Amino acid sequence: MLRKYVGFVPAALLLGGLFGFALVVTVLYSFWEVSDFEVKANWTLGNYEYLLSVGTYARTFGATLAMVASATVLTVGAAFPFAYWLTRHVSPRWRRPLLVAVVLPFFASYLLRIYAWIAILGQNGAINRALQAAGITDEPVSLFLFNRPAVVLVLVYLYFPFGVLALYVSLERFDWSQLNAAMDLGASPLVALRRVLLPQIGPGVVTAVVFVAIPMLGEYVTPLLVGGTKGVMAGNLVATFFDTGEYSRGAAAALLIAGFVTAALVYFRRSLDLAAAADARH
Amino acid sequence: MHEGVTRRTALRLGAGGAAAAYLAACGGGAGGSEDNRILFKTWEDHYLPEQLTEIRRQDDIAVKVSFIDDNLTNLQQLKRGGRFDVVSADALWVPKFRAEGLIDTLDPDDLSTWKNLYPAARNVSFWTDAGKPTCYPHGWSPHLLYYNPDEVTTPPDSWAALLDRKYRGKVVLPKEPNDILAKAGVATGAAKPFAMTDAELARAKAYLTELKPNILKLAQAGTEEVRAFSEGATVISTILGFDLRMEEAGGPKARGVLPREGTIAFADGEMVVASSPKRSLVNRFLEADFQPEWIAKRFLKYPHPHFDEKAYKLLVDQGHGELADRVLYNRPELPFDPEQVALVAPPPNQTAYTDAYNEVFGA
Amino acid sequence: MRGTEPVVSRLGRATRALLGFYAFGIYLFVFAPIALLVLFSFNANPSGAFPVTGLTTRWYDAMLADYELRDSFWTSLEVAIQVVVLSTFVGITAAFPLARSGTRFLGAIRVWITLPIMLPGLLIGISLLILLSTVLGLELSRRTAVIGQAIFTTPFVIMLLTARLEGLDPRLEWAAGDLGADALRRLMHVVLPAVAPAILAGALLAFTLSFDEFIITLFLIGGDQTLPLYIFNHVRYGITPAVNAVASLFLLGSLSVLTLAVVTTRMLRLPFRRR
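Structure tokens for the assembled complex are given below, as produced in the milestone run.
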């Protein structure tokens, strides 16, 4: 009877035992104290109080949400017309190859894809040089690097493939002739879009948002390399606490992020099934 | 059925191939045996890639370098069980490593190059434990303010001058939280920048909060510092020799100024990790690493003073004497004089320093 | 009728052209940084950025002569293979009950399984570091890195295999059963061959993820170094465009693995389910 579940054992050990236990320890750490770089088992809410009370940290968490929100909107917003083009104006024979082509850069190293932008965004970078060559500016504009827009831009670049894939799967399944049918039945184009298209691709858009926004929340390397002092995200906060020996505070900050992520995951859990199906088809 | 045979065969081949690849990777992965490897955690100016290749060829020691973020993180990583053989640290951090039982003392008798050091470096009180040295002195430098003379008309001659609005988004500092606080302490008149009282810390924090909008970025390492001027900065606080490094990199010019209020300085050395099982290999590595020829070459790439006297003489012979004197190479006693500079040290109230830093920079 | 329809209206044609331009722009956006990386790997300018002062293969030579790079590559390979073996094993064993047992806790298990993917890699790295190093007192090494990476890659494999298993037509197994095959024979001769392409795809996916994995490895590998860590160090501390040369080769390598994946899955494609 229980033999059915025997397959779960290795996964339970790895993902449940090791990973689960690691998370539990982290949770415990967040409620304990650090004195002289050693963690002592004194129960306290002080770590959370500290994080939520200092203005800088609150601003960092807020800035993280803002940056993730903008990056998500931009990513999904940029991916949608592209996915639409792919499913509507490209013959079926070319769809897969063109899709693979746009996802291809994803297979260059994650770090290098971030690093590449430094050469483009900096004062001596491609954008500034192009602007100066075109005569639009005389001097280099320092708007583009080591600030929040730089982080948002690079995040969009990094997560664009996820957005495209999720939207493509959803749009490809949609039967466009339904729109014609709706309009034949007397609906205006707008109503047709709203009541026929939107409900069917809605879940796809939600999946795209989930697969783009949630990983962004924990981003650490991107703000580290291109954020400067203005584009700091919650992940950097965790890393710094940890590096400077403030384990409890680091654990608490990490759990604040994790709590947010888990809540979002539970709320959007049905989107995850969709993604699994999409993966299989891919 | 034909298809089935193909599939099964393919699966078997695949499994066999994977196993073979695995074994091959395991065998070739460690680069042969483990016992000629030295794991060296240090800053980038402590080695040259061609030097490591040479050491590997000549002495058969494979050196694997990891980089230090800052002294505190370094200590944490070693305490957490990071496996290294040789680790570098600054000034008064060395006794802290020793106090935590993380490092062993050196035996000068085993190191043929020890006698090449300046006498002032060989007898540093806080680098000695029970008569034996706790680290092999490497180099030192004060932190200056370097500015781009093409962009900056009035040179910033003090820490306070950096607060000016014209430097908005143009200042770069090295990313060492304690150092940053200490510089702020110097700027606000703290008696001991690395051991500030709560009141002094509060003033330093206020200085940094005011400075923050002017900061473009915190540079993690030398490369990021050299790139800084090309990325829009016009002032950077860093160690001696930056102007020469900028010249070599073909970037914008840089000119150095000693801030009016004073400054901090580092003096670093290599330490032997206590748990390292390769003591004799480590000694051989140190001897190879501190050959005067290599120190001279390292100096020419990172022109800040080193503690090796024989290398100085070599540099003079090679015609670089003037350069060496300009960067105060032959004044090894300077960093140890508290009247001159505040030497890097672990703050007794480290948590307060970390909190202050985190609360200003958000991360 | 799905797919493209002849677009005859002027507005339709204009929209199509506009979207075409947009798509071209997207491709530009996506490829330009990579193209620049490769360009700079041939750039004689040692700062690795504009201006391009000349073309040279000097950085490729320097890169190939760097034994640290070779060590990192072999370490990455060794770790990746162990991660693949571990993830695939755990993935296969877990996919079966997940797809077939019909337990009530399926939803919760699904969420738990996607947790390692969705939670920040930073958190995974840190919590495992605390557990393995501080609590269990283990030494940080390639082995601890393998464990950390496997926790991240296994969910992908599980999801892939579960979806494939769920999509498997049960009638084939029933037919085999009717013809006298017991559970083991059904498994060996019907199910596993059908799932084989997905297993292969999962293995390749795990390999690719592991090879490029950075943040978990950063915390757990101790004194060793994988290729992404080597790249990270040289992006921050290195000054030559040798890093760009590494990037080009990395891209080439990934492309080769991808092509291999596509070719082999196509070879092993089975007509169990017609799309």
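Residues 1-10, 24-33 of chain B have pLDDT under 50 and may be disordered. Chain B has two domains: 37-140+266-335, 141-265+342-361. Further analysis is deferred to the final report.
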